[in-house]
């Protein structure tokens, strides 16, 4: 059995939704298509498709295997194209997953420029704060903000992300400014519930502070709006707060107490060959965002303020 040919048969059957239409696309008989798929399932020792009189359904094993096969076939097609042409043009659908707040605040301005530079690429963007399964769900690339990433993923670092505790001038005038992390326990803190440990803010290597307050949410934009209204202290990523910090609408706190370092990464399934559309997209983001990124310009403008005897 030709394994690559059997993979193509499997992928075309899934795409077509029937053995007959797949056979027509491949220029094969329906019997030959059915035999190749049966041989592939026998070699794998797993059923890939459930067949009924009306429809075909992927099994759980079939869904993961289909995503892998589709990528392998795309890589083979791209490798062939690279031999036939001097330059490889990015083309096709690029499926992207990105965090909601980052996507709305920064990707909205960047994506039109990428499409203008690469008109043969179509973007399919899913904005969600959950961590998608790239292979299972068929994403080409995902943007993630993290300290570290699983070793199963290939990743490129795009830019630093700083988590900044801050509050509005009105709140600080009314409630005072914390001089050290443990002071946060007596303040009104606005809690992001989608964090790994909601209600725990970390400083340095060991300082872990339990915080609470009048508002909790899984959306950073909502918490930012509440902080701007003087409702309390937030501890959110700089990409969300940079403009407010630069304009003085929010004031950074505890400047001498570093929060854990994060970074924005582009991640994609581990494989030897990247498609041109993924490679150019990641290069584009790195070139346009830069490191340090524009959302951290406030860090050069703001001087640490002394609010306590130890100079915090």
TrEMBL record:
<feature type="domain" description="HTH lysR-type">
    <location>
        <begin position="1"/>
        <end position="59"/>
    </location>
</feature>
<keyword id="KW-0238">DNA-binding</keyword>
<dbReference type="InterPro" id="IPR000847">
    <property type="entry name" value="LysR_HTH_N"/>
</dbReference>
<dbReference type="InterPro" id="IPR036390">
    <property type="entry name" value="WH_DNA-bd_sf"/>
</dbReference>
<dbReference type="GO" id="GO:0003700">
    <property type="term" value="F:DNA-binding transcription factor activity"/>
</dbReference>
<dbReference type="Pfam" id="PF03466">
    <property type="entry name" value="LysR_substrate"/>
</dbReference>
<dbReference type="InterPro" id="IPR058163">
    <property type="entry name" value="LysR-type_TF_proteobact-type"/>
</dbReference>
<comment type="similarity">
    <text>Belongs to the LysR transcriptional regulatory family.</text>
</comment>
<dbReference type="GO" id="GO:0006351">
    <property type="term" value="P:DNA-templated transcription"/>
</dbReference>
<dbReference type="GO" id="GO:0043565">
    <property type="term" value="F:sequence-specific DNA binding"/>
</dbReference>
<keyword id="KW-0805">Transcription regulation</keyword>
<keyword id="KW-0804">Transcription</keyword>
<protein>
    <submittedName>
        <fullName>Transcriptional regulator</fullName>
    </submittedName>
</protein>
<dbReference type="Pfam" id="PF00126">
    <property type="entry name" value="HTH_1"/>
</dbReference>
<dbReference type="InterPro" id="IPR036388">
    <property type="entry name" value="WH-like_DNA-bd_sf"/>
</dbReference>
<dbReference type="InterPro" id="IPR005119">
    <property type="entry name" value="LysR_subst-bd"/>
</dbReference>
């Amino acid at each position: 059995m030709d394994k690559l040919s059997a993979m193509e048969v499997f992928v075309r059957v899934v795409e077509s939704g029937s053995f007959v239409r797949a056979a027509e696309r491949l220029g094969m008989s329906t019997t030959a298509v059915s035999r190749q798929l049966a041989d592939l399932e026998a070699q794998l020792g797993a059923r890939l498709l459930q067949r009924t009189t009306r429809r075909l359904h992927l099994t759980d094993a079939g869904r993961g295997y289909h995503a892998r096969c589709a990528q392998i076939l795309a890589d083979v097609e791209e490798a062939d194209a690279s031999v036939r042409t001097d330059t490889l043009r990015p083309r096709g659908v690029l499926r992207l997953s990105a965090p909601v707040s980052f996507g709305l605040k920064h990707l909205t301005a960047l994506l039109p420029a990428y499409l203008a530079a690469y008109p043969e690429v179509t973007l399919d963007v899913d904005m969600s704060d959950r961590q998608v399964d790239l292979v299972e769900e068929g994403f080409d690339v995902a943007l993630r903000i993290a300290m570290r990433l699983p070793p199963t993923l290939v990743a490129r670092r795009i830019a630093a992300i700083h988590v900044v505790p801050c509050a509005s001038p009105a709140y600080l005038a009314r409630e005072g400014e914390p001089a050290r992390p443990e002071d946060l326990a007596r303040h009104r803190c606005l809690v992001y519930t989608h964090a790994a440990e909601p209600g725990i803010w970390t400083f340095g290597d060991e300082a872990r502070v339990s915080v609470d307050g009048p508002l909790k949410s899984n959306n950073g934009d909502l918490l930012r709006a509440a902080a701007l209204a003087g409702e309390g202290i937030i501890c959110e990523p700089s990409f969300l707060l940079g403009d407010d910090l630069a304009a003085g609408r929010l004031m950074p706190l505890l400047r001498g107490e570093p929060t854990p370092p994060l970074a924005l990464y582009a991640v994609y399934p581990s494989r030897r060959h990247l498609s041109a559309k993924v490679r150019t997209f990641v290069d584009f983001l790195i070139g346009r965002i830069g490191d340090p990124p524009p959302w951290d310009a406030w860090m050069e403008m703001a001087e640490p303020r002394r609010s306590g005897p130890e100079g915090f």
